Amino acid sequence: MHKQKQKRDSKRAFKALDRLKFNKDLSQLIAIQSVSENPTGVKQALHTMLTLGKAMGFETHALLEDRVGVIEIGKGLETVGILVHVDVVPAGNDAHWHYPPFELTEAHDSYYGRGVADDKGPALAALYAMAQLLPYKNEMKKRVQMIVGTQEETTWHDMAAYCETQVLPDYGFTPDGEFPITNMEKGYVDVELKFPRHFQGRTIDLMGGDSKNTIPDFAQIELSHFSKEMLSVLRDTETMTENDNGTTTVRAMGKSVHSSSPQDGENAIVKLCHTLFGKLSLLPEIAALVIFVERELKDDLFGTSLGLNRGQQIYEGQDAHVTVISPTMLRTTEDSFILNINMRQTIGLTQSQIAAAFHEKAACYGFTFEIVDYKPFLYVSPKRPFLQCMAEAYEKETGRENAFVLAHGTSYAKAMPNFVAWGPYFPEDEDTCHENDESIRIETLHAAYRVYAEALFQMAFDERLLIGGND
């Protein structure tokens, strides 16, 4: 009877989302250009979240030279964690957006703006869900702690430092994925390839993409000190322009999407290399790079040509999918052309196997390489009691049946033990993270708030230790 009464009280206790206040707070967050590489903007977004939390009545702390913030309530033998981030990927070309990227827009029953889905909107929804615990903080059996990161879209140095210096939550979730519970998450790899840059009395600059984890929507080559006769070879290229400074630029345009789903986008780096593939008599300086992309990556999203289409597609009875791979950034330095390869690997494909595959190709194409980021496949057993609490909350608030599924992207869930990605998108929603016109349905975000509030109530007042269970 005690548990039944507790659930009835918790259900009655939390309120409907205050839409006007929520919109005001979200608008304030979206307006901050907290692109990961912009320290000033990221710090401003972090302190805005902490200010909102403090105004609600939480204890708040900025840690590690403003790289991480903590918003918390309650006490107990266990700590429930909510991992969020306030940094965002670049907006790219504003002209490709129908709505201003750093201004909250409501249209077509949706929120638009960079970060409304990844991850400012869900972070704010989770904070509002936490706020429903405030009247009962002295009765809680658990501590609830929101950890706000600032480098999720890039290095994760913030979480690495936090994990090294702070006491971690026992379990929890990040609202940076999809419903139902994504207890499995593909791995993440960035491999940086360096092709030597040779000068022959003329200059070639390559550039493409602006984020390692986004399919690039632009790529270009800029040529200078080329004769008109040589440049005439490119005149059948529709995207060639002659600039006032005497240089010539060839551009390729694509469609940006999250790099975990490259099949939904159009890769501008691949398009540019395909265009240049037939012009290599003019451009021998970039031949190795162009041929590598054309032969090893074009029309092959699964790493088959590289020998990386391996690993387990089924693990513990769940779908683990397959590895996907794409070039995402292209840059020119004083002595190299640098190509970033982004991978989302299935379970069983190891770092040593990835290194061996690129080592073999390096001998063929003359590049050097470095694995600059590697995160393994994530799996958390569905038998964990805290996941069962989350499953019950999801079913209770949505009327849908819970399931345990694979996330194709990567999230802060990998940063700490016993974490999963959970919401905000529902299965029928279109995921527009990292895309132009990033958006999320208003009702989706409000429904996520209700699910989070119910789950936090159930976990915070449950007298059991919820970390147990068999892996």
Write the layout of secondary structure elements.
Layout: H1 2-13, H2 19-30, H3 39-56, E1 59-63, E2 68-73, E3 79-85, E4 105-107, E5 110-112, H4 120-131, E6 143-149, H5 157-165, E7 171-174, E8 177-178, E9 181-185, E10 188-196, E11 203-208, E12 218-224, H6 228-231, E13 240-242, E14 248-253, H7 268-277, H8 287-297, E15 314-315, E16 318-319, E17 324-332, E18 336-344, H9 351-365, E19 368-375, E20 378-379, H10 385-398, E21 404-407, E22 419-422, E23 424-425, E24 439-441, H11 442-461
Parallel strand pairs: 3-6, 3-7, 7-22, 8-23, 9-21
Antiparallel strand pairs: 1-2, 2-6, 4-5, 5-24, 9-20, 9-22, 10-18, 10-19, 11-12, 12-14, 13-14, 15-16, 17-18
